[in-house]
């Protein structure tokens, strides 16, 4: 059974991580990293990428706060269930694009042309982008001693045109005394193809408060409180290659760019009040809750950026050169908090369960799962 569950989770994470818009768009987002040659340019690149990956910060945290329970009722003493599920958060229209002119950039600049637009997709937005940005570099002309300023343009990446943020999960719950369940989430460190790595753990509590209410034994439904915390660490390899061309000077060995990756660290916490009814073959529940999450994305490794070659400032071809920057991106999404409403059901066939739920929040989440339970 352990090997089977491990295989299911490994395959689930492989499918979702391999098809994830984040994985698909990281290479394209590398064009923004190439604008981080200066300290101010690096800050602007972080601002652009924070806006571009905004749905990850909200959607992924919402996914991790889902699926903690499939009934309002708690287990009997030492009763337990094991569930494998997948959650998908829908990105609202307001977070599928953003306006670069509203980001208060200091060094990078929107290049306005007849065919361009300052409104550009996020990673989960439309599959086309026509936003051009310019990165400006100042240097001293070695021949004249005068200060010069050059611009290197780059295109903002498109989205995937898939406005959904997915996340799989495996967890087990065990009943203890006084109507209390302890739930544990755990995925051991996995090394998946395409240099995808991840590990996850979480812990939750659910307590049936029906017996503490006046006349609780006569209440025909179960009323419970639940809280859960999840922590996810993952990394995804991607490639930002140096610009090629006869006018580009590159003095770095190709191995310099090995080890490029995006590292993600997510923390999610939720608390919920539930009411529901459990019948022999089906359970129904609903509730309200509060959730919060945070996400950090950084980019360990060395990355090539293109800058003007100040050794040849007077050539009309404006020669360029490659400069190396280390760990250019460090983005934090903090306190993505919201209230939510939720409904769900569990269909029980002997020891086999099929579960489904829907969470109504800024990022609505649908969740389905299968598992086994012994109450």
TrEMBL record:
<dbReference type="InterPro" id="IPR046495">
    <property type="entry name" value="DUF6588"/>
</dbReference>
<feature type="signal peptide">
    <location>
        <begin position="1"/>
        <end position="24"/>
    </location>
</feature>
<dbReference type="Pfam" id="PF20230">
    <property type="entry name" value="DUF6588"/>
</dbReference>
<protein>
    <recommendedName>
        <fullName>Outer membrane protein beta-barrel domain-containing protein</fullName>
    </recommendedName>
</protein>
<keyword id="KW-0732">Signal</keyword>
């Amino acid at each position: 059974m352990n090997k089977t569950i491990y295989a299911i989770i490994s395959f689930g994470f492989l499918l979702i991580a391999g098809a994830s818009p984040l994985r698909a768009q990281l290479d394209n987002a590398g064009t923004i990293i190439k604008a981080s040659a200066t300290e101010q340019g690096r800050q602007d690149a972080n601002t652009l990428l924070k806006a571009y990956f905004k749905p990850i910060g909200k959607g992924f945290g919402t996914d991790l706060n889902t699926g903690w329970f499939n009934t309002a009722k708690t287990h009997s003493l030492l009763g337990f269930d094991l569930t494998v599920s997948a959650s998908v958060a829908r990105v609202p229209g307001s977070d599928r694009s953003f306006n670069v002119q509203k980001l208060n950039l200091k060094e990078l600049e929107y290049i306005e042309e007849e065919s361009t637009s300052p409104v550009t997709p996020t990673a989960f937005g439309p599959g086309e982008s026509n936003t051009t940005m310019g990165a400006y570099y100042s240097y001293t002309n070695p021949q004249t001693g005068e200060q010069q300023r050059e611009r290197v343009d780059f295109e903002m990446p498109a989205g995937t045109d898939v406005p959904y943020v997915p996340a799989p999960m495996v967890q087990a719950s065990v009943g203890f005394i006084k109507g209390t369940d302890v739930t544990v989430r755990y995925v051991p460190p996995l090394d998946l193809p395409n240099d995808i790595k991840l590990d996850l753990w979480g812990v939750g509590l659910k307590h049936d408060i029906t017996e503490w209410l006046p006349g609780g034994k006569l209440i025909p439904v179960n009323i419970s409180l639940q809280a859960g915390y999840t922590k996810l660490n993952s990394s995804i390899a991607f490639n930002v290659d140096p610009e090629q061309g006869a006018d580009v000077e590159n003095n770095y060995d190709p191995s310099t760019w090995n080890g490029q990756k995006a590292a993600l660290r997510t923390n999610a916490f939720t608390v919920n009040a539930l009411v529901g009814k459990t019948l022999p073959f089906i359970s129904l529940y609903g509730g309200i809750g509060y959730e919060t999450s945070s996400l950090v994305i950084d980019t360990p490794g060395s990355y090539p950026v293109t800058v003007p070659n100040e050794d040849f400032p007077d050539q009309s071809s404006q020669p360029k050169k490659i400069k190396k920057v280390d760990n250019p991106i460090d983005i934090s999404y903090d306190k993505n908090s919201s209230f939510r409403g939720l409904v769900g059901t569990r269909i029980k066939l002997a020891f086999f369960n099929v579960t489904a739920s829907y969470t109504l929040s800024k990022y609505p989440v649908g969740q389905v799962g299968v598992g086994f339970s012994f109450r």
